[in-house]
Amino acid sequence: MKKTQILMLMMMIAGAVEETRAQQLQNPFGLVYAGAISENKRGAVNIHPVTYERSGITVAANVYTPPNFDADHKYPTLVVAHPNGGVKEQVAGLYAQRLAELGFVTIAADAAYQGASGGEPRNVDTPHNRVEDIHGMADFISKYKGVDPGNIGLLGICGGGGYSLKAAQSDKRFKAVATLSMFNSGEVRRNGFLKSQVESIQERLEQASNAREQEANGGEVLYVGKGTPPLTEEQIAAMPFDLYREGYIYYGKTHAHPNSGGGYTMSSLLELMTWDATDEIELIDQPLLMIAGSKADTYYMTDKAFEKAVNAKTKELFLINGATHIQTYWKPEYVDQAVDKLEAFYRNNLEISQSNEL
Question: How much is the average pLDDT of 318-337?
Protein backbone atom coordinates (compact mmCIF):
# COMPACT_ATOMS: atom_id res chain seq x y z
CA MET A 1 0.00 0.00 0.00
CA LYS A 2 1.35 3.46 -0.96
CA LYS A 3 2.29 6.06 1.66
CA THR A 4 -0.60 8.30 0.63
CA GLN A 5 -3.06 5.42 1.10
CA ILE A 6 -1.59 4.64 4.50
CA LEU A 7 -1.91 8.30 5.48
CA MET A 8 -5.54 8.34 4.39
CA LEU A 9 -6.15 5.15 6.37
CA MET A 10 -4.56 6.71 9.46
CA MET A 11 -6.71 9.84 9.12
CA MET A 12 -9.87 7.76 8.68
CA ILE A 13 -9.06 5.67 11.75
CA ALA A 14 -8.26 8.72 13.87
CA GLY A 15 -11.52 10.44 12.98
CA ALA A 16 -13.61 7.33 13.56
CA VAL A 17 -11.89 6.59 16.88
CA GLU A 18 -12.63 10.12 18.07
CA GLU A 19 -16.28 9.71 17.11
CA THR A 20 -16.53 6.34 18.86
CA ARG A 21 -14.99 7.66 22.06
CA ALA A 22 -17.49 10.52 22.07
CA GLN A 23 -20.34 8.04 21.61
CA GLN A 24 -19.08 5.85 24.47
CA LEU A 25 -18.74 8.81 26.80
CA GLN A 26 -22.24 10.01 26.01
CA ASN A 27 -24.03 6.66 25.84
CA PRO A 28 -25.24 5.27 29.19
CA PHE A 29 -25.90 1.86 27.61
CA GLY A 30 -22.36 1.50 26.26
CA LEU A 31 -23.57 1.41 22.64
CA VAL A 32 -20.84 2.26 20.12
CA TYR A 33 -22.69 2.44 16.81
CA ALA A 34 -23.84 5.58 15.01
CA GLY A 35 -27.34 6.76 15.90
CA ALA A 36 -27.48 4.64 19.06
CA ILE A 37 -30.17 5.24 21.66
CA SER A 38 -28.87 7.38 24.50
CA GLU A 39 -32.08 7.63 26.51
CA ASN A 40 -35.51 6.03 26.57
CA LYS A 41 -38.23 8.35 25.36
CA ARG A 42 -41.98 8.00 25.15
CA GLY A 43 -43.11 7.17 21.62
CA ALA A 44 -39.64 6.09 20.47
CA VAL A 45 -37.63 2.88 20.40
CA ASN A 46 -36.60 2.00 23.96
CA ILE A 47 -33.79 -0.23 25.16
CA HIS A 48 -34.11 -2.53 28.17
CA PRO A 49 -30.96 -4.16 29.60
CA VAL A 50 -31.87 -7.57 31.04
CA THR A 51 -30.20 -10.66 32.46
CA TYR A 52 -31.35 -14.26 32.56
CA GLU A 53 -29.94 -17.69 33.27
CA ARG A 54 -28.89 -20.22 30.66
CA SER A 55 -27.48 -23.52 31.93
CA GLY A 56 -26.37 -21.87 35.16
CA ILE A 57 -24.68 -18.92 33.42
CA THR A 58 -25.97 -15.35 33.67
CA VAL A 59 -26.54 -13.91 30.20
CA ALA A 60 -26.57 -10.14 29.62
CA ALA A 61 -28.85 -8.89 26.86
CA ASN A 62 -30.58 -5.80 25.50
CA VAL A 63 -34.23 -5.89 24.48
CA TYR A 64 -35.38 -3.17 22.08
CA THR A 65 -39.07 -2.31 21.98
CA PRO A 66 -40.65 -0.44 19.03
CA PRO A 67 -42.12 3.08 19.10
CA ASN A 68 -45.34 3.35 21.10
CA PHE A 69 -44.85 -0.16 22.43
CA ASP A 70 -47.94 -1.56 24.13
CA ALA A 71 -47.34 -4.71 26.17
CA ASP A 72 -51.02 -5.64 25.75
CA HIS A 73 -50.43 -6.16 22.03
CA LYS A 74 -48.48 -9.01 20.46
CA TYR A 75 -45.46 -8.07 18.36
CA PRO A 76 -43.39 -10.07 15.87
CA THR A 77 -39.98 -10.56 17.43
CA LEU A 78 -36.41 -11.01 16.21
CA VAL A 79 -33.46 -12.72 17.86
CA VAL A 80 -30.12 -11.20 16.75
CA ALA A 81 -26.88 -13.20 17.14
CA HIS A 82 -23.62 -11.24 17.19
CA PRO A 83 -20.36 -11.91 15.29
CA ASN A 84 -17.36 -13.80 16.65
CA GLY A 85 -15.55 -11.56 19.12
CA GLY A 86 -18.37 -9.04 19.04
CA VAL A 87 -20.77 -7.89 21.72
CA LYS A 88 -24.37 -6.72 21.80
CA GLU A 89 -23.35 -3.04 21.82
CA GLN A 90 -21.85 -3.18 18.32
CA VAL A 91 -23.34 -4.34 15.01
CA ALA A 92 -25.90 -6.68 16.62
CA GLY A 93 -27.27 -3.73 18.57
CA LEU A 94 -27.33 -1.53 15.48
CA TYR A 95 -29.47 -4.00 13.54
CA ALA A 96 -31.63 -4.75 16.59
CA GLN A 97 -32.34 -1.03 17.00
CA ARG A 98 -32.99 -0.42 13.31
CA LEU A 99 -35.44 -3.32 13.13
CA ALA A 100 -37.16 -2.21 16.33
CA GLU A 101 -37.73 1.16 14.65
CA LEU A 102 -39.77 -0.77 12.08
CA GLY A 103 -42.07 -2.32 14.67
CA PHE A 104 -40.32 -5.48 15.87
CA VAL A 105 -39.35 -6.41 19.40
CA THR A 106 -35.69 -7.42 19.17
CA ILE A 107 -33.11 -8.97 21.46
CA ALA A 108 -29.31 -9.01 21.24
CA ALA A 109 -27.35 -10.91 23.90
CA ASP A 110 -23.71 -11.42 24.71
CA ALA A 111 -22.66 -15.02 24.20
CA ALA A 112 -22.02 -17.04 27.35
CA TYR A 113 -18.37 -16.76 28.47
CA GLN A 114 -18.11 -13.50 26.51
CA GLY A 115 -18.95 -9.81 26.84
CA ALA A 116 -20.94 -8.96 29.96
CA SER A 117 -22.29 -12.51 30.26
CA GLY A 118 -20.92 -14.92 32.84
CA GLY A 119 -18.90 -18.07 32.42
CA GLU A 120 -15.32 -19.11 33.14
CA PRO A 121 -12.78 -19.32 31.66
CA ARG A 122 -13.39 -16.20 29.67
CA ASN A 123 -13.80 -16.29 25.90
CA VAL A 124 -14.62 -19.94 25.48
CA ASP A 125 -15.97 -19.94 21.92
CA THR A 126 -17.51 -23.28 21.01
CA PRO A 127 -20.32 -23.97 18.55
CA HIS A 128 -22.36 -25.81 21.18
CA ASN A 129 -22.39 -22.79 23.45
CA ARG A 130 -23.09 -20.30 20.68
CA VAL A 131 -26.01 -22.34 19.32
CA GLU A 132 -27.40 -22.76 22.83
CA ASP A 133 -27.15 -18.99 23.27
CA ILE A 134 -29.52 -18.58 20.32
CA HIS A 135 -31.97 -21.13 21.72
CA GLY A 136 -31.67 -19.32 25.07
CA MET A 137 -32.55 -15.95 23.57
CA ALA A 138 -35.70 -17.52 22.15
CA ASP A 139 -36.48 -19.06 25.55
CA PHE A 140 -36.23 -15.68 27.26
CA ILE A 141 -37.86 -13.41 24.70
CA SER A 142 -40.83 -15.72 24.12
CA LYS A 143 -41.95 -14.93 27.68
CA TYR A 144 -41.40 -11.18 27.41
CA LYS A 145 -44.54 -9.04 27.66
CA GLY A 146 -45.82 -8.02 24.25
CA VAL A 147 -44.03 -10.81 22.39
CA ASP A 148 -45.90 -13.29 20.25
CA PRO A 149 -44.05 -16.56 21.02
CA GLY A 150 -45.35 -18.15 17.83
CA ASN A 151 -44.01 -15.35 15.68
CA ILE A 152 -40.23 -15.17 16.14
CA GLY A 153 -37.61 -14.59 13.45
CA LEU A 154 -33.84 -15.00 13.58
CA LEU A 155 -30.99 -12.84 12.29
CA GLY A 156 -27.39 -14.01 12.56
CA ILE A 157 -24.45 -11.76 11.73
CA CYS A 158 -21.01 -13.09 10.71
CA GLY A 159 -20.18 -15.99 13.05
CA GLY A 160 -23.64 -15.54 14.55
CA GLY A 161 -24.96 -16.24 11.06
CA GLY A 162 -23.30 -19.64 10.90
CA TYR A 163 -24.57 -20.49 14.37
CA SER A 164 -28.05 -19.27 13.41
CA LEU A 165 -28.12 -21.67 10.47
CA LYS A 166 -27.35 -24.49 12.87
CA ALA A 167 -29.89 -23.37 15.50
CA ALA A 168 -32.65 -23.06 12.91
CA GLN A 169 -32.14 -26.64 11.75
CA SER A 170 -33.84 -27.94 14.88
CA ASP A 171 -35.51 -24.92 16.52
CA LYS A 172 -38.76 -24.43 14.66
CA ARG A 173 -39.78 -21.54 16.90
CA PHE A 174 -37.84 -19.50 14.35
CA LYS A 175 -40.36 -18.92 11.58
CA ALA A 176 -37.99 -16.99 9.29
CA VAL A 177 -34.18 -17.10 9.21
CA ALA A 178 -31.79 -14.48 7.84
CA THR A 179 -28.02 -14.11 7.83
CA LEU A 180 -25.81 -11.10 7.18
CA SER A 181 -22.20 -11.65 6.05
CA MET A 182 -22.36 -15.25 7.26
CA PHE A 183 -19.10 -16.73 8.58
CA ASN A 184 -18.71 -20.48 8.94
CA SER A 185 -16.54 -20.59 12.05
CA GLY A 186 -15.83 -24.31 11.87
CA GLU A 187 -14.66 -24.26 8.27
CA VAL A 188 -12.34 -21.29 8.86
CA ARG A 189 -10.90 -22.55 12.16
CA ARG A 190 -10.26 -25.91 10.47
CA ASN A 191 -8.98 -24.90 7.04
CA GLY A 192 -7.97 -21.29 7.60
CA PHE A 193 -9.53 -18.32 5.84
CA LEU A 194 -9.75 -19.09 2.12
CA LYS A 195 -8.07 -22.43 2.92
CA SER A 196 -4.87 -20.71 3.96
CA GLN A 197 -4.05 -23.16 6.82
CA VAL A 198 -4.99 -26.57 5.44
CA GLU A 199 -1.43 -27.86 5.81
CA SER A 200 -1.38 -27.15 9.57
CA ILE A 201 -4.68 -28.78 10.62
CA GLN A 202 -3.13 -31.68 12.52
CA GLU A 203 -0.54 -29.44 14.16
CA ARG A 204 -3.23 -27.07 15.41
CA LEU A 205 -5.38 -29.94 16.67
CA GLU A 206 -2.35 -31.17 18.62
CA GLN A 207 -1.91 -27.69 20.13
CA ALA A 208 -5.60 -27.56 21.08
CA SER A 209 -5.41 -31.01 22.68
CA ASN A 210 -2.39 -29.97 24.73
CA ALA A 211 -4.14 -26.76 25.77
CA ARG A 212 -7.13 -28.71 27.02
CA GLU A 213 -4.89 -31.07 28.96
CA GLN A 214 -3.16 -28.09 30.54
CA GLU A 215 -6.53 -26.61 31.57
CA ALA A 216 -7.67 -29.95 32.98
CA ASN A 217 -4.56 -30.08 35.13
CA GLY A 218 -5.22 -26.62 36.54
CA GLY A 219 -2.67 -24.86 34.35
CA GLU A 220 -2.83 -21.57 32.49
CA VAL A 221 -5.63 -21.15 29.97
CA LEU A 222 -4.11 -20.58 26.54
CA TYR A 223 -5.68 -18.23 24.01
CA VAL A 224 -5.63 -17.65 20.27
CA GLY A 225 -5.47 -13.98 19.30
CA LYS A 226 -5.09 -12.54 22.78
CA GLY A 227 -2.24 -10.56 24.30
CA THR A 228 -0.54 -9.65 21.03
CA PRO A 229 0.91 -6.11 20.73
CA PRO A 230 -1.23 -3.56 18.85
CA LEU A 231 -0.50 -3.32 15.15
CA THR A 232 0.86 -0.20 13.52
CA GLU A 233 -1.05 1.46 10.67
CA GLU A 234 1.49 0.02 8.26
CA GLN A 235 0.98 -3.48 9.64
CA ILE A 236 -2.81 -3.09 9.44
CA ALA A 237 -2.57 -1.90 5.85
CA ALA A 238 -0.39 -4.89 4.96
CA MET A 239 -2.90 -7.48 6.20
CA PRO A 240 -3.77 -9.73 3.22
CA PHE A 241 -7.55 -10.06 3.67
CA ASP A 242 -10.17 -7.29 3.81
CA LEU A 243 -11.99 -9.20 6.53
CA TYR A 244 -9.09 -9.15 8.96
CA ARG A 245 -7.79 -5.69 8.04
CA GLU A 246 -11.18 -3.97 8.27
CA GLY A 247 -12.18 -6.15 11.21
CA TYR A 248 -9.09 -5.08 13.14
CA ILE A 249 -10.02 -1.44 12.57
CA TYR A 250 -13.71 -1.98 13.42
CA TYR A 251 -13.21 -3.95 16.64
CA GLY A 252 -9.95 -2.40 17.75
CA LYS A 253 -10.44 1.24 16.85
CA THR A 254 -13.57 2.69 15.25
CA HIS A 255 -16.16 0.61 17.13
CA ALA A 256 -14.08 -0.65 20.02
CA HIS A 257 -15.85 -1.84 23.16
CA PRO A 258 -14.08 -2.96 26.36
CA ASN A 259 -16.02 -6.25 26.40
CA SER A 260 -15.27 -7.09 22.79
CA GLY A 261 -12.47 -9.18 21.32
CA GLY A 262 -9.92 -10.84 23.55
CA GLY A 263 -9.39 -13.90 21.35
CA TYR A 264 -10.71 -17.33 22.28
CA THR A 265 -9.46 -20.29 24.26
CA MET A 266 -7.19 -22.57 22.26
CA SER A 267 -9.05 -25.59 23.62
CA SER A 268 -12.18 -24.32 21.83
CA LEU A 269 -10.56 -25.52 18.61
CA LEU A 270 -11.24 -29.14 19.58
CA GLU A 271 -14.92 -28.53 18.90
CA LEU A 272 -14.62 -25.74 16.34
CA MET A 273 -12.39 -27.67 13.95
CA THR A 274 -14.76 -30.66 13.81
CA TRP A 275 -17.89 -28.55 13.26
CA ASP A 276 -19.45 -27.03 10.16
CA ALA A 277 -22.41 -24.65 9.87
CA THR A 278 -23.63 -26.38 6.71
CA ASP A 279 -23.76 -29.93 8.08
CA GLU A 280 -27.43 -31.04 8.05
CA ILE A 281 -28.45 -27.66 6.64
CA GLU A 282 -31.14 -29.44 4.65
CA LEU A 283 -33.09 -29.57 7.93
CA ILE A 284 -33.88 -25.88 7.50
CA ASP A 285 -37.39 -25.76 6.09
CA GLN A 286 -38.17 -22.18 7.10
CA PRO A 287 -37.92 -19.24 4.69
CA LEU A 288 -34.25 -18.24 4.35
CA LEU A 289 -32.63 -14.95 3.37
CA MET A 290 -28.85 -14.66 3.08
CA ILE A 291 -27.29 -11.21 2.64
CA ALA A 292 -23.65 -10.55 1.76
CA GLY A 293 -21.50 -7.81 0.28
CA SER A 294 -20.61 -8.31 -3.37
CA LYS A 295 -16.97 -7.51 -2.55
CA ALA A 296 -16.84 -9.57 0.66
CA ASP A 297 -13.95 -12.03 0.73
CA THR A 298 -16.20 -14.17 2.98
CA TYR A 299 -18.86 -14.50 0.30
CA TYR A 300 -17.80 -18.04 -0.58
CA MET A 301 -19.23 -19.21 2.75
CA THR A 302 -22.65 -17.69 2.11
CA ASP A 303 -22.66 -19.09 -1.42
CA LYS A 304 -21.90 -22.63 -0.24
CA ALA A 305 -24.51 -22.55 2.53
CA PHE A 306 -27.17 -21.10 0.24
CA GLU A 307 -26.60 -23.82 -2.34
CA LYS A 308 -26.86 -26.58 0.27
CA ALA A 309 -30.07 -25.25 1.90
CA VAL A 310 -32.22 -27.23 -0.50
CA ASN A 311 -35.28 -27.65 1.71
CA ALA A 312 -35.83 -24.03 2.75
CA LYS A 313 -39.48 -23.10 2.19
CA THR A 314 -38.23 -20.16 0.15
CA LYS A 315 -34.69 -18.87 -0.16
CA GLU A 316 -33.11 -15.70 -1.50
CA LEU A 317 -29.54 -14.54 -1.85
CA PHE A 318 -29.20 -10.76 -1.72
CA LEU A 319 -25.89 -9.11 -2.60
CA ILE A 320 -25.15 -5.53 -1.50
CA ASN A 321 -23.27 -4.08 -4.43
CA GLY A 322 -19.80 -2.80 -3.57
CA ALA A 323 -19.83 -3.80 0.10
CA THR A 324 -17.14 -5.74 1.91
CA HIS A 325 -17.90 -7.97 4.90
CA ILE A 326 -17.15 -5.41 7.61
CA GLN A 327 -18.75 -2.51 5.72
CA THR A 328 -22.15 -4.21 6.12
CA TYR A 329 -21.68 -3.66 9.88
CA TRP A 330 -21.58 0.12 9.84
CA LYS A 331 -21.54 1.92 6.48
CA PRO A 332 -24.92 3.73 6.31
CA GLU A 333 -25.75 3.10 2.65
CA TYR A 334 -25.05 -0.62 3.03
CA VAL A 335 -26.82 -0.95 6.37
CA ASP A 336 -29.85 0.81 4.87
CA GLN A 337 -30.01 -1.71 2.02
CA ALA A 338 -29.70 -4.65 4.40
CA VAL A 339 -32.38 -3.30 6.75
CA ASP A 340 -34.79 -2.63 3.87
CA LYS A 341 -34.33 -6.19 2.63
CA LEU A 342 -34.73 -7.65 6.13
CA GLU A 343 -37.90 -5.66 6.73
CA ALA A 344 -39.49 -6.97 3.53
CA PHE A 345 -38.40 -10.53 4.33
CA TYR A 346 -39.80 -10.54 7.85
CA ARG A 347 -42.99 -8.75 6.76
CA ASN A 348 -43.57 -11.50 4.21
CA ASN A 349 -42.81 -14.40 6.52
CA LEU A 350 -43.95 -13.37 10.00
CA GLU A 351 -47.57 -12.81 10.85
CA ILE A 352 -48.34 -9.13 11.39
CA SER A 353 -51.44 -8.44 13.45
CA GLN A 354 -53.72 -5.75 12.02
CA SER A 355 -53.76 -4.11 15.45
CA ASN A 356 -49.96 -4.02 15.33
CA GLU A 357 -49.24 -2.82 11.81
CA LEU A 358 -45.53 -2.17 11.38
Answer: 98
